[in-house]
Amino acid sequence: MKPAQHSIARASINDVAAHAGVSAQTVSRVANGQTNVRPATRDRVLASMRELGYRPNSAARNLKSGRFRSIGFVTFNLATLGNERTLDAVTLASEAAGYTTTLLSIADPTQLDVVGAFGRLEEQAVDGIILVMSAEVGPLDELTIAAGLPVVIVDSDANLPYTIVDTDQEQGAKLALDHLLELGHRELVHVSGPAKSYSAARRADAYRRTLEKAGLSPEVIAGDWTAASGLEIGRRLAEREHPPTAVFVGNDQMALGVLHALHERGLRVPEDVSVVGFDDSDEALAFWPALTTVHQNFDEVGRKATELLLGLIDGDEVERQKILIPTRLVVRDSTGPAPR
Fold first, then answer.
1. Nearest residue to 329 via CA among 263, 265, 248
2. Cβ distance 153 to 131 under 8 Å?
3. Whole-prediction pTM value?
4. Quick one: what percent of the chain has pLDDT higher than 70?
5. Which residue intervals of the chain bear CATH 3.40.50.2300?
6. Do 264 and 258 contact (CB within 8 A), yes or no?
7. 1-52 CATH fold
């Protein structure tokens, strides 16, 4: 007969107190990081915790305080460079503040899915939510989200009663277009992102306004953010009898496809056609030629959104606001004077 197997009892706060020769209240103070404990006593309690294998019951502590030290992050598409970098910045800023991050990625960005994601996060006991609302999700006036939870929204034109943090998309587009106009280009096509994307729409609007102000006719062709769509659109542009002298592309991945198509056709960049991207991805410097592009500070977007959300969680009374993070143009080898 096999001997009965006994589970090893988990050390309690009272066990640690007895082992260290202190009160349970002192152990609690050490476990919670409070400073009103003498250093020698703290070291003795910590040594007892290690020896007994004691782990503070953070869940019970959070329930008692009404704080779970966790924030939710909801995104429609984690595969995009912006969303990936923003999430990375949010997790780092949250960790530095002692919070964990719970990610929910929505494959089909509908109103019902967004509401469902917020409901799941509330069940998982988060203290607040950052929503990267990068596309339209239906009638926003009917979008009831996060009842009672602090919320900060990233990348949105939504008319919602929440603080919004975003890249200054219009400023970035204007920087790119002013650069091309100063180089003498007058035949400029814009390869935009998908129609439902807020950031794509703002860049396209800035493109139209800038060209119309310069007395030029705008032309927008929508892609889907992928290099494959940029390649297909680039081939159509390269096959024209008179290709444009410059292409402003909505992101670096589509710009990669455009560059490939121009090379296929034997068009030189930038001697025949100049190309500007948007994002300043890590790979942009390795494109052929190195890509002129608009730098987005995704790290600052994520940090600022986290900072504002943690402030709301702590009870700060912050009026609804829209914070735009500036961009800058990084000029490399893919742009040059317009050909005569």
1. 248
2. yes
3. 0.78
4. 85
5. 69-167+298-325, 169-296
6. no
7. 434 Repressor (Amino-terminal Domain) (1.10.260)
